[in-house]
Design goal:
Layout (H helix, E strand, L loop, with lengths): L2 E2 L3 H5 L2 H10 L2 E10 L2 E10 L6 E7 L7 H12 L3 E4 L12 H13 L4 H13 L4 E11 L1 H11 L6 E5 L17 E7 L7 H14 L3 E6 L11 H8 L7 H18 L2
Parallel strand pairs: 1-9, 4-5, 4-6, 6-7, 7-8, 8-9
Antiparallel strand pairs: 2-3, 3-5
Length: 267
């Protein structure tokens, strides 16, 4: 697979569509609840209330902090583009981590015993598919950091998604992948200087995906570190001594890559 630094040529073709969606969007964002195996999941739904068309649905799996303002903002940004977005509760009860230690324990529990993750993910996907205006045959998922690892592992499991996008997510497999078992198209957006996702991990992921016959692409951003899309990363890194940093250029470019990718898979 080729490694790209951008998709400016592709983006030119979608700017008019994106601009029109943003200009007319009357975005509504609201907390929602549903049950998954008896547990109450508290997620966040965002959509354009003025649109009457059937639209694709996009799941947004958050960073290890849980359902916070940052992931809500990303869901609303997707709604402005014309999608119906669900920021997915992966911990139950809408739980948010107050410290990096707590976040590490919550996310590690999910990734180390991935058997529970599909239930939370699929429960959210079923809820999203049931929303008025959602085309249940056009569903994708994006994820940030921990969430990026979740969506990639759901793709490894053959989840019925048009595509998945990982923003600075871990690339190590939590579940094995079978040849020809990956049906979702995959876009990985990672930082060249991310100490948590080193080049060796990227190389291993690419080898794994080639062996599985997956349709994937990896985009690496020079100088970008972990959590490069989150404007709060610098403050969080300083507060909790984490190797994370915001990178405005990589943030902008990676969002553009995602927009072009979604436009293509939903065409």
């Amino acid at each position: 697979m080729r490694k790209y630094s951008g998709m400016l040529a592709v983006m030119i073709g979608v700017l008019v569509w994106v601009g029109a969606a943003s200009a007319t969007a009357a975005v509504v964002g609201k907390d929602v609840e549903y049950l998954v195996q008896g547990a109450t999941m508290k997620s966040y739904l965002a959509y354009d209330a003025d649109s009457k068309d059937r639209r694709p649905g996009v799941m947004v799996v958050p960073e290890w902090w849980g359902i916070n303002d940052y992931v809500r903002k990303r869901a609303r940004m997707l709604a402005e583009l014309g999608y119906i977005a669900l920021a997915v509760d992966m911990y139950g009860g809408g739980r948010q981590a107050a410290t990096a230690e707590e976040a590490g324990k919550l996310s590690s529990k999910v990734m180390s015993d991935f058997a529970s993750a599909p239930a939370a993910f699929k429960g959210g996907m079923d809820f999203l598919k049931g929303q008025p205006g959602v085309d249940p045959n056009r569903i994708a998922a994006i994820g940030y950091c921990f969430g990026g690892g979740v969506v990639l592992n759901m793709a490894r499991q053959g989840a019925s998604l048009r595509g998945v996008v990982s923003f600075h997510g871990g690339l190590t497999a939590a579940t094995s992948v079978k040849p020809d078992g990956v049906t979702a198209k995959i876009l990985v957006l990672t930082g060249d200087d991310d100490p948590l996702v080193p080049r060796e991990q990227v190389n291993a992921f690419e080898k794994e995906m080639r062996g599985a016959g997956a349709d994937f692409r990896v985009v690496s951003y020079p100088g970008a570190k972990h959590s490069f899309t989150n404007p709060d990363a610098d403050a969080l890194g300083k507060k909790f001594n984490l190797p994370v940093a915001y990178n405005a250029e990589a943030d902008t470019k990676s969002w553009a890559e995602m927009k072009a990718f979604l436009k293509t898979i939903f065409a």
